[in-house]
Amino acid sequence: MNQWTVGDVKITRVVEIESLGGSRFILPDATREACLPYTWMQPHFMDEQGNLQMSVHALVVDTGDRRILVDTCIGNDKERHVPNWSHLQTHFLQDLSDAGYPPETIDTVLCTHLHVDHVGWNTMLVDGQWVPTFPNARYLFAKTEWEHWDANEDESVYGPVLADSVRPVVEAGLVDLVDVDHRVCAEVCLEPTPGHTPGHVSVHIRSGGAEALITGDCIHHPVQMSRPDWCSSADVDQAQGQQTRESLLKRYVDDQILIIGTHFATPTAGHVKHLEGGGYFLDVSG
Predict the structure, then answer these.
(1) Beta-carbon count within 10 A of 95 CB
(2) Residue 143: CA count within 13 A, CB half-sphere
(3) Which tens digits make up the pLDDT trace of 90-148?
(4) CA-CA distance, 216 to 150, in Å (whole number)?
(5) Number of domains in the chain
(6) CATH number of the CATH domain containing 210
(7) Which residues fall within 8 angstroms of residue 145, CB to CB, at 6 or more apart?
(8) Which of 20, 47, 67, 198 has the most CB atoms around its CB within 10 Å?
(9) In 10 A of CB 24, how many CB atoms?
(10) In what order do the strands lie in the sheet with 183-185?
(11) CA distance 233 to 82
(12) Domain range enclosing 34
């Protein structure tokens, strides 16, 4: 678990899975040989052999008045076509509670997009039925995102993701469809970052003169800061994804905004800096 303070807002990371070397099916260009020259990634984001470290985690944004859970990982008991993600039995909910956030205290669930590893804990299995895990929360999805997947559902890719993790909360009347620049509260708003999916959003936090950005999957791994042209195999529109990534990095380089990666391994957050020779890197030195 990591925790950061942004003004009066507390952001807490709750990890479901952290793993080494599993990134190549998501970033096919990120071979060991191609990654090794980017030595700034060691030791946190890459090992000495060039294997990339990645994480699946959720982030609680606690404003004092609001408890917003950003992305809900893979989830337990879900039938998935990725073997390491199928029928998980993790302690995620207990870890969330141990961090001070029992499920019933979450008032907002915000999904940056509706991919398999961002919606899983929207629901949990109870007596053979998928029920909302956070019964007192409103679930926020970008309207563009929901309309895309509602019309283009494909269970052959990852499994019945919408059926077990999205449609049950829609049918329970807990979902609000919002604009991609929606303001959640005074401190938190959405920032459109399309390409990975059509309605993909990042989450911008501002408080007390400080700022943070939760990336979602517009940047899967910090290596894409040095190589924004390395696109994810899961991108719906790779060209748009690259354009989004390049404009985001250009906008925030050498800024004080804290960049918190949705799949970045521990320590997960840092500041975008210029890399000698071109490109950027994530400075986690503080």
Answers:
(1) 16
(2) 7
(3) 999 999 999 999 999 999 999 999 999 999 999 999 999 999 999 999 999 999 999 99
(4) 20
(5) 1
(6) 3.60.15.10
(7) 111, 113, 114, 197, 198, 199, 200, 201
(8) 67
(9) 15
(10) 183-185, 188-192, 201-207, 210-214, 258-260, 269-274, 280-283
(11) 14
(12) 3-283
